């Protein structure tokens, strides 16, 4: 495991979810730094700003005001400077077709927001572990969706 | 004197000599001067020539000077012109610099707009796909309507053929009636002719009777002939009667035909009315189809709302409850903890309900793409998905070699998943679950079901279990939405699973039946068209 501080970027317009995320991170024994933005435009401004510290992973909600997660994902993957940033989709709903599209568009993982806080922690921890693996290859489509079931293995 | 003269003479001679010498010298000088003069004259001429040449050269030079003066003036003007052009070029260069910056700025703006257009394009493509899906659904509904329309047109065409047939038969009967009238007239004419001949015979008889008196010898013979004629007359009269009878019969037959004609015309009129009725019903059905399309769109909107907006607050409730139970555990009374747990259960059920409703509505709306499917592969996938439950229930799933079928793969997978997970859920607690899955291709005529067409082949799939089963009279009801046979505390569930199963089978133009008795397991039979 890597000892350096992990810069995490969270884009979610939902205040409650941001709090859950922050609390979950706080309870994990990881050296992390969280930056949260609340809409797609803010996210893209932050990412394209030269002075911003480089994030190691982006947790991206789909349903956001001004610019939704799909648009942000496309912009990130088309930007040569940003395209290597791992994007983890973080969504309430789960529709297979939507998930397939996101995989094709270059998202790294898909997480359906769990309804239990302990699962919330578990799934974030598991995802961060996967992200921190050096040179981790892009997951296959079967491993694209991270669920509480496959998180509990770790 | 002489001496003086002599000396004078000598002097003179000397002077003479001197003079001649001087003369000679002078002559020589003159000659020399002549030369010198000629020389001078020549030189003068030369000088004159050179002076003339110089004059010309001077004129030439003066002209050249003028020319140079002019050219210098022209160069002065040209220089000013160049200086002015230089200034102009400087200005233009400055303007070009400004214009270049402007262009660079516009290029950046264009790139920005191009990326915006790229995003907009993707959005449009996504929307385009959505619209194509809906268009495909509408296409299917349209095809259905077109098919109904065609069926009605066929019936209308059959009716118009039947009408034409009737008209043709009418015409034929009218022809025959006309022929009968002609035949009647013919018979009447023949009757007249025969009566005429009878009258003639009577006259001839009288003639013969008269001749009898005169020719008594031949009387006997003639009486014989008369008797014969009378017989012939009677015969003719009899034939007349017969013909009249036939004529009467023909008139009756004619009336009969006329009556039948009227009946057929009535039926033709009725058919025309029935046709109009059908056309009206067609229009009504088209209207209703259009209404259904609108209703479908509204349902889609509802699906979207339930998938996104309902799930969100529910999940929050669940998460906050878990945070409270985790972090405030010691601050809660036992009663408080219990109530929170009940709240969690209720929220969980609601979540399940929303999920199930969503998949139920998705089955109705997603596009129907049929593919050749190996059912063995589908069962294997479902078994992998249910691996944990299968282990927990100590279940064995026995799969006989299954056929391939034309299915909407993801729907069929859900169908098999629902049936197998149902069989596992409703297993008997003390008996390991045993599920048998079989399939065969069978002719519709052998299946004895009025919903199946006898001349088609069907893929018949059976899922049989040894679970708790159900009373036979529930065999239809279990397929209805929200119908449950057990309390939710006994068997969890929303009562949507089998409704989804039925919907999927119907999407495959098939039927499903359930057979069971309480505590004797259940058997589900699916029939979908083969190929």
Helix and strand topology:
The complex is a heterodimer of chains A (154) and B (531).
Chain A: E1 6-11, H1 15-27, E2 32-37, H2 40-48, E3 57-60, H3 69-78, E4 87-91, H4 96-104, E5 109-112, H5 117-132, E6 145-146, H6 148-151
Parallel strand pairs in A: 1-2, 1-3, 3-4, 4-5, 5-6
Helix pairs in contact in A: 1-5, 2-3
Chain B: H1 2-214, H2 219-327, H3 334-365, E1 371-374, H4 375-385, H5 387-392, E2 396-399, E3 404-407, H6 409-425, E4 434-443, E5 457-465, H7 497-507, E6 511-516, E7 522-529
Parallel strand pairs in B: 2-4
Antiparallel strand pairs in B: 1-3, 4-5, 5-7, 6-7
Helix pairs in contact in B: 1-2, 2-3, 3-7, 4-6, 6-7
Number of alpha- plus pi-helical segments of chain A: 6
Look at the structure and give the mean pLDDT of chain A. 87
> Largest beta sheet of chain A: what is the strand line-up?
2-1-3-4-5-6
**Poorly predicted residue ranges of chain A:** none
Kindly provide the radius of gyration of chain B, computed on alpha-carbon positions and rounded to a whole number of angstroms: 68 Å
Mean pLDDT of chain B: 87
Biggest protein-protein contact in the assembly: A-B, 23 and 25 residues
Number of strands of chain A: 6
Largest sheet of chain A: 6 strands, parallel
The radius of gyration computed from the alpha-carbon positions of chain A, rounded to a whole number of angstroms, is 14 Å
Would you list the SSEs of chain B in sequence order as H and E? HHHEHHEEHEEHEE
Overall SS class of chain B: alpha+beta
Rounded to the nearest angstrom, the distance between the terminal CA atoms of chain A is 13 Å
Count of individual helical segments of chain B: 7
Q: In percent terms, what proportion of residues of chain A is strand?
A: 15-25%
Strand content of chain B: 5-15%
